[in-house]
Amino acid sequence: METFNLGNLTVLEGDRKGKYPSANSILVKDEVCLLIDPSVDVDKAGRDSVSARVDVIVNSHAHEDHFAGNHLFPEAELRIHEQDASQMRSLDALMDAYGTPPAEKEAMRNRRALADFQEKIIEQRGRAALQKQQEATAKRLLKASGCPS
């Protein structure tokens, strides 16, 4: 992943200049360090690809290429528009937002890539840790969305 530094702002350029399925991410280093849209490429490169602590993650919208790296920063506060929060909590809600027909939704659920991703997370964190992280993420999303918990 290539980076471009512009003062306290760093652009983390995704593969193919950030074209889908990649995306570009932006790191703002200040008193509070923001990471905007931690992309698929941040996820692939790992936490160390972001050369700073991350206090706040801002997701500009709920597309998978813009939030794939969120899980690398579990201590960060998450900010996302309330209308996108449900898409971050549920794969079905994300597919509904895309207008995915039911048959395609089922096919996507069965895709090997999704299964591989889930296995990877389970192996890295263990089932109990994964459940704890999912609960913490859901609480942060609810807080960020302004919904009562």
Please provide a written account of the structure.
With 149 residues, the protein is of the alpha/beta class. The protein has two domains: 1-79, Ribonuclease Z/Hydroxyacylglutathione hydrolase-like (Metallo-beta-lactamase, Chain A, 4-Layer Sandwich), CATH 3.60.15; 86-149, no CATH class. Helices cover 48% and strands 15% of the residues. The chain contains seven helices and six strands, in the order ββαββαβαβαααα. The chain has helices spanning 15-18, 40-45, 64-67, 82-89, 91-97, 102-109, 112-145, and strands spanning 2-6, 9-13, 25-28, 34-36, 56-58, 77-79. Strands 1-2-3-4-5-6 form a six-stranded mixed sheet. Helix 3 links the parallel strand 5 (56-58) and strand 6. The longest helix has 34 residues, at 112-145. The radius of gyration is 15 Å and the shape is globular. The chain starts with a strand and ends with a helix. The mean pLDDT is 77.
Shape: globular
| Chain-averaged pLDDT | 77
Binned strand content: 15-25%
Give a short account of the largest sheet: 6 strands, mixed
- The count of β-strands is 6
Biggest β-sheet: strands ordered side by side in the sheet: 1-2-3-4-5-6
Q: What's the order of the H and E elements?
A: EEHEEHEHEHHHH
Question: How does CATH name the architecture of the largest domain?
Answer: 4-Layer Sandwich
Instruction: Output the CATH topology of the largest domain.
Output: Metallo-beta-lactamase, Chain A
Total tally of structural domains = 2
Between the first and last Cα atoms, what is the distance in angstroms?
38 Å
Q: Which regions have little confidence, pLDDT < 50, spanning 5+ residues?
A: none
